[in-house]
Amino acid sequence: MNDLPVPHLVTGVRRETADTVSITLAPAGAEALEPFAPGQFAMVYAFGVGEIPVSVSRIGRRELVHTVRAVGAVSAALCALRPGTRVGLRGPFGTGWELERARGRDVVVVAGGIGLAPLRPLVLAALDTRRAHGRLNLLIGARTREDLPYADQVRAWAHSHGALHCGATVDRPSPGWWGHVGLVTTLLNEARFVPENSTAYVCGPEVMIRATARDLLHRGVRADRIRVSLERNMRCATGHCGHCQLGGVLLCRDGPVIGWDRAASLLDVREL
Question: With 0-12 CB in 10 A as exposed, 13-18 as middle and 19+ as buried, what is 183?
Answer without folding.
Answer: middle
